[in-house]
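A quick aside before the break. I want you to see a complete sequence-to-structure record at least once, exactly as it would be stored in a machine-readable document. Don't worry about memorizing anything.
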Amino acid sequence: MSKIPVVFFGSGPVAAKSLELLLSDFEVVAVVTKPKPSHHRGSFPVIDVAVRNNLHIHTVTNKKEVSDLIASTPFRTEVAILIDFGIIIAQDVIDYFPKGIVNSHFSLLPELRGADPISFAILSGQAQTGVSLMLLVVAMDEGPVLACGVQELDGTETTPQLTDQLINLSDNLLKSELPRYLQGESKAVEQSQLSTLIPNHPDKPSYSHKLTKQDGELDFSKPAEVLERQIRAYVEWPKSHTKFNDLDVVIITAHVASTNGNAGTREVIGKELYVYCSKDALVIDTLKPAGKSVMGALSFINGYGKYI
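That is the input. The structure line, written in tokens, reads:
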């Protein structure tokens, strides 16, 4: 059985991993991606995967360049796949493909539209998230949905761990559902109708946003369970940071203890480092002082006691 030809739009690390997995079942006739910046050192994941697999590469930096590429370059595909692209797509590009552009979005739409649904699923303490295969429209993440896959959360996931789970879920969905769509065996459903068709499916839109370094500042006026989720959600970027007196530290892992004190104050109890929050305390397991390596709390207590 011949592979389905597709054009792949993607730029980031999630796109690179997804592209590598798709190659087993799809013929990727072209990869459209951002160029490697001149100042960038080291690997550039999507381009590296494409070069390694002898794929045709087209680099673009903005919406107009994508439109110009599509206007000047014929692609023999009915459909395109878009994952982690980072450039807005204009209507003329969507219209070029007879079956549209299928965007694999890592949430259960209409929940967590926007730039960083994975981190926000952890941050908000959801019991489940998932992947939605959406037909791309110009409005942000508002297109009709071809299929959804659910990923249960147990409350211990970090963003990198959940990302890997969702990449695999996305790949399985694309390989099972995209052929059905192209053969006319399934059709897209408007997001407003999904909750009437799927039990317990989110029924109202919510949104994530692109994270900044400021988002990573730990606010101890919040409950400890909220900050513990933040630490897991932001472990790669923007990281969860605070000051112990005048020492900058990044908290890598922590857990919650049911004890209370003045929010923001620190205390060593036994061999553990507590930071009191508005409710309960955050017990620091591992942390990274500025300019140093990651260390356990006890090592920090022994070496940096004057900052506690």
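Two observations worth writing down. The mean pLDDT is 96. The first helix runs from residue 13 to 22. We'll return to this after the break.
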